[in-house]
């Protein structure tokens, strides 16, 4: 549960959801006793720029997915849990290595506006949206038509059409996943930009 600071600090600030802050996990006997999301995350911590499970985007073989989701469902049933990310956090903590987290955003990246659902449905000129757009070497899903030399600054490179790297990791994620209120601003921005760049120019081509 992240929120942007009043000064729009670019660092990720964690505000623990009170629903999970003081819950005691492990009373079912599935794993060691852990109190609250803070202890669960500390136990499940991985290195890298994006060390924790983020938005629910995942990839895996069918058999492996069945195993992981089966264990997560069993943990949820035993612990009387109800939130998917809560249960997967426990799976990380209690069964190390079962879930691999894309800590460097090589496959998935979830552009964050660092605003909660209560106040995150903001328009595109909000500072939080601007900060997310600046997370990539060229502004996220931004297209420039002028002046002529500005084409090189568009999100997709004018020659190679490659998207840019993340400033924090140097990697270019394969997929963007927009979670929560980011769907209403960044998600719409990227969808419109993709249509403009790759779909509309070829609609009349037969």
What can be said about this structure in brief?
This protein is mainly α and 206 residues long. It has helices at 18-21, 36-43, 62-79, 84-94, 127-133, 182-199, and strands at residues 24-25, 34-35, 108-109, 175-176. α2 crosses α4.
Notes on the structure:
By secondary structure, the chain is mainly alpha-helical. α2 crosses α4 and α3 crosses α4. A hairpin with an 8-residue loop joins β1 and β2. The strands form 2 sheets. The protein has a two-stranded antiparallel sheet. Helix content is 32%, strand content 4%. The N terminus is likely disordered. The protein is elongated and about 60 Å long.
Secondary structure tally: strands: 4
* Radius of gyration computed on alpha carbons: 20 Å
Helix count from the secondary structure assignment: 6
**Helical residue percent?**
25-40%
Contiguous low-pLDDT stretches (5 residues minimum) are 1-8
- Helix-strand pattern: HEEHHHEHEH
The percentage of residues in β strands lies in under 5%
Strand line-up of the largest beta sheet: 1-2
The coarse overall form would be: elongated
End-to-end distance = 48 Å
Average pLDDT for all residues: 84
Structural class by helix and strand composition: mainly alpha
Instruction: Describe the largest sheet.
Output: 2 strands, antiparallel
């Amino acid at each position: 549960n992240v929120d942007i600071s009043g000064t729009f600090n670019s660092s990720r600030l964690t505000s623990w959801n009170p629903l999970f802050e003081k819950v005691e996990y492990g009373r079912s006997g599935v794993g060691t006793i852990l109190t609250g999301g803070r202890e669960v995350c500390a136990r499940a911590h991985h290195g890298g720029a994006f060390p924790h499970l983020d938005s629910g985007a995942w990839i895996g073989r069918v058999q492996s997915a069945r195993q992981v989701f089966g264990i997560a469902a069993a943990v949820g049933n035993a612990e009387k849990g109800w939130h998917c990310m809560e249960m997967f956090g426990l799976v990380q903590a209690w069964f190390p290595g079962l879930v691999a987290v894309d800590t460097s955003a090589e496959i998935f990246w979830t552009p964050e506006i660092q605003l909660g659902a209560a106040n995150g449905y903001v328009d595109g000129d909000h500072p939080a949206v601007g900060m997310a757009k600046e997370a990539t070497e060229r502004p996220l899903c931004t297209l420039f038509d002028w002046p002529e030399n500005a084409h090189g600054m568009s999100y997709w490179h004018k020659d190679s059409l490659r998207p840019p790297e993340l400033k924090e990791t140097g990697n270019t994620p394969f997929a963007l996943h927009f979670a929560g209120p980011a769907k209403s601003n960044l998600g719409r921005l990227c969808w419109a930009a993709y249509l403009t760049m790759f779909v509309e120019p070829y609609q009349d081509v037969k």
